[in-house]
RNA sequence: GGUCCGUUCGUCUAGGGGUUAGGACGCUAGGAUUUCAUCCUAGUAACAGGGGUUCGAUUCCCUUACGGACUACCA
């Protein structure tokens, strides 16, 4: 690749960043890093009506949290500032005029109401109204009135838009890095609005102008933009600019049923579709971060949704992803989002985390429940339970018996508490009382010695013992628990079980 | 309706003219830890249908079906 790689993520600040947007950002990031290029973030806020306060900050914070922050954006290496389209407003009119002058665009004075009426009328006849070469000379455009008349109407303050004058009959052979060759007939395209009556450009104009001005080498975006590709390529041609290369990413679909993944799916099935929590008048939407997902796990899972490097490898660090990434290996078909596999990835990353860090994450939860535990002690507890958790938030349920004695005993397990059990447990207490070196291995050896000597079956002791300490037949190695809660507490719990059961 | 894109186990996917169609998640069973989880081992399960091309198609072409996106002075 001779050209310097510059790619962008260009979201519209209309709300929190959707998981599909995150994936688009990720693929742009990976492609940039893989090719020693630049990844920049541009805010496409040309629709003032849909602007949502806080959305822009949210997007930046989300990318930051995920570890895929842009190299250039608002307030950071501003080589092509401004990065907000609303602040570039003054630029676009000039380019729209350029297209008018070169006869690639025209003024249209039709009101929104008039267009609605046309659409309705066509619809009633089973047709679809499409604004293009077939009717643009019958509509209220500068193509059918004189230049003077056009100028007069504009000067008089009439509302107008600027529309692209799509070539009448041409077959466009376009190339997409992921999809290969794609063909379009220009006669079937419509004359899109480039410049709105409110003085703002539409997405199409602003996007092409900025991608050119910001020296974008590759446009990597969602598949929903594929139908706009001919317009965009034509715009580059109209301006006489070299077009970037295009890659349209497959969509992320609902886990069950058909269609694009939406916010509602997350609510319904209990998984987040947003990187960070988002609060609005409509309520709170949960975020990966708040749900206890590791950013690395989210990235890893998303990267493999629609892409793989051809090997069986599944666990990748960001660096490894950068190294292995290849746009042309992106799958063409949409991918259903699988919440179960998403959780599995988190589990993998949780196991990989070191115990000290996990203890640090767990400590606040314990404190909220009124426990302050020695750091080393907590690290040990975490090491015993982390393999059975998907999230740090599950730690408490997996380890509560380390902190509080059981208040109830699992009913099913209690059935193993036989008539001879109290006597056995009493004996066990005596054995434990004798032990001075109260460590897991030592306790285990001595207790087992006692059982062999007296020919007591393992099951007869171990099950009631575990039940007494944990309250159920679950949890880590029993003697590790014994060591951690200590001799005094162990005996206390045994005595309580004898009394209760 | 029109335009474009797509279709390999339930899901994510590998493969690509001749394969026992591979892996992962999930699920099931066995082993192991006297528990649970993890772990190991095994099992389950797929080339959408129909035509071509070919000695041979899951792979190439056409077509049907199905799915998706787009079809705004939204992005």
Automatic annotation (TrEMBL):
Primary enzyme class: ligase
Subcellular location: Cytoplasm
Residue ranges of domain Glutamyl/glutaminyl-tRNA synthetase class Ib catalytic in the record: 4-342
Motif 'HIGH' region, residue numbers: 11-21
Position of sequence motif 'KMSKS' region: 260-264
Record domain Aminoacyl-tRNA synthetase class I anticodon-binding: where: 358-498
Any single GO CC term annotated in Swiss-Prot or TrEMBL for this entry: cytosol
Keyword set, alphabetical order: Aminoacyl-tRNA synthetase, ATP-binding, Cytoplasm, Ligase, Nucleotide-binding, Protein biosynthesis
Keyword Cytoplasm annotated: yes
CDD domains assigned: GluRS_core
GO MF: ATP binding; glutamate-tRNA ligase activity; tRNA binding; zinc ion binding
Catalytic reaction annotation: tRNA(Glu) + L-glutamate + ATP = L-glutamyl-tRNA(Glu) + AMP + diphosphate
GO biological process: glutamyl-tRNA aminoacylation
Subunit structure: Monomer.
Similarity remark: Belongs to the class-I aminoacyl-tRNA synthetase family. Glutamate--tRNA ligase type 1 subfamily.
Function: Catalyzes the attachment of glutamate to tRNA(Glu) in a two-step reaction: glutamate is first activated by ATP to form Glu-AMP and then transferred to the acceptor end of tRNA(Glu).
Name by which UniProt lists this protein: Glutamate--tRNA ligase
Organism this protein belongs to: Flavobacterium granuli
Gene: gltX
